[in-house]
Specification:
The protein has about 120 residues and is α+β, with helices and mostly antiparallel strands. It folds into 2 domains: about 1-45; about 50-110, Potassium Channel Kv1.1, Chain A (2-Layer Sandwich). The chain is built from 4 helices and 3 strands, in the order αββααβα. A 3-stranded mixed sheet has the order 2-1-3. Helix 1 packs antiparallel against helix 4 (about 100-110) and helix 2 (about 70-75) packs across helix 3. It holds the Pfam family BTB.
Length: about 120
C-alpha cells in the first residue's frame, strides 16, 4: 500500500509541476505576444525604415500609406508574390480599397488582428 501511495503522490507532484510549467509558458507567450504587437505597432505607426508606399483612394482623394516591404512580404502571400523579383518597385496603387479598409488589412498583416 505504501508503494501505491508513493506512486500517487509522485504522480500528483508531477502533474502539479506540469500545470505550473504550462501556466508559466502561457504567461510568457502572452507577454511575448503583447511585446510583438507593441513593436509592430510602433513600426506601422512610426516613420522609421519604411521603404514601400501603398496608394488608395477615398472618393477623389488619394492617400499614401508608408509600410515595410519585409513585413508585407513575410506576412502576406499577395505582397510576397508581388514584391518577389521587383526590388526596384517601391509603390503600389490599390484603388479597390479605401483608406480605412487598407488600414484594417495592414493591421491584420502587422498584428495578426484587426483593431
Amino acid at each position: 500500500m505504501d508503494n501505491n501511495n508513493n506512486n500517487n503522490n509522485n504522480n500528483q507532484i508531477e502533474n502539479a509541476n506540469q500545470n505550473e510549467n504550462q501556466n508559466e509558458m502561457k504567461n510568457l507567450e502572452k507577454k511575448v505576444t503583447k511585446n510583438l504587437i507593441k513593436n509592430y505597432s510602433n513600426l506601422l505607426n512610426g516613420n522609421s525604415f519604411k521603404d514601400f508606399s501603398i496608394f488608395v483612394e477615398n472618393e477623389s482623394n488619394t492617400f499614401e500609406i508608408k509600410v515595410h516591404k519585409s513585413i508585407l512580404s513575410s506576412r502576406s502571400p499577395f505582397f510576397n508574390e508581388f514584391l518577389r523579383d521587383r526590388d526596384q518597385i517601391n509603390k503600389i496603387f490599390l484603388n479597390q480599397f479605401n483608406k480605412k479598409e487598407m488600414e484594417s488589412i495592414l493591421s491584420y498583416i502587422y498584428y495578426g488582428n484587426i483593431f
